[in-house]
C-alpha cells in the first residue's frame, strides 16, 4: 500500500525497517549518549534510548505498523549534492485514521539537519501520498506549547498548501507526569489541489 521509497528534490524517504537499517548503526543517534538527542527530543513523546534493543524494537514496531496499514514510517535521507548526502537525518511518518479519512504527520530531525526546510519538503511529499494514493481527505500536524521551531515550520508549509490553524486540543498529549496541549493544523484535499502538487516520485522497490 505504501511506497518503499519517496523521492523529492533534495530528499529520499526510505522505509524504516530492518531490511534497510541496522539497529546498532542507528542506536548512536537515538542513544542517551548522543550530544544532541536531549535537545532534539525535548518536545517529543519518546525518550533517548538506553540500549540498542530499544532501537531494534522501534524498527520492529515500524514494520508491524507498515504491514497492518497503520502507519508509513520513513527515514529521512538527504540526496546527492546535499550536505550529509546519504546519511540518516531523522524519521518521518504518516499515520492514517482510516475511519476519519485523515492522517497525522510526525517528524524527528537530527539537529545537524535543522533549518534546511526539510520539514516542509517531506510534508509536501506525504500530502501527495495521502491524497493521491491513499484517497484520504485531510492531513494534520501539530506542535506542543513552546516548540517554536516546529510552529514556524508547520505554519510555513501549511500556509503554502492552503491549510489553516484549527486551534488548541487541550490535554491531548501525555508526556512524563503531565498531559500537554497540542496546537493543531490541517490541510484538506481540496485546499491542496487548489495550490499545487509536489514533484514527488514513488518507488515501489
| Count of extended strands | 9
Name the helicity range: 25-40%
The end-to-end span amounts to 12 Å
Rough shape?
A: globular
Query: Roughly how many Å is the radius of gyration?
Result: 16 Å
Number of domains: 1
Please state the structural category: alpha+beta
The major pleated sheet works out as: 9 strands, mixed
Which CATH class is shown?
A: Alpha Beta
CATH superfamily: Gcn5-related N-acetyltransferase (GNAT)
For this entry, give a set of tags.
single chain; 205 residues; alpha+beta; Aminopeptidase; nine-stranded mixed sheet; 9 strands; globular
Task: Please explain how this structure is put together.
It is a single chain. The protein is of the alpha+beta class and 205 residues long. It has one domain (5-203): Aminopeptidase. It is 32% helix and 31% strand. The chain has helices at 23-30, 37-40, 52-68, 118-133, 148-160, 189-195, and strands at 5-7, 11-15, 72-78, 90-97, 102-109, 138-144, 164-175, 178-188, 201-203. Helix 1 packs across helix 3 and helix 4 (118-133) crosses helix 5. It is globular and about 45 Å long. The chain starts with a strand and ends with a strand. The mean pLDDT is 94.
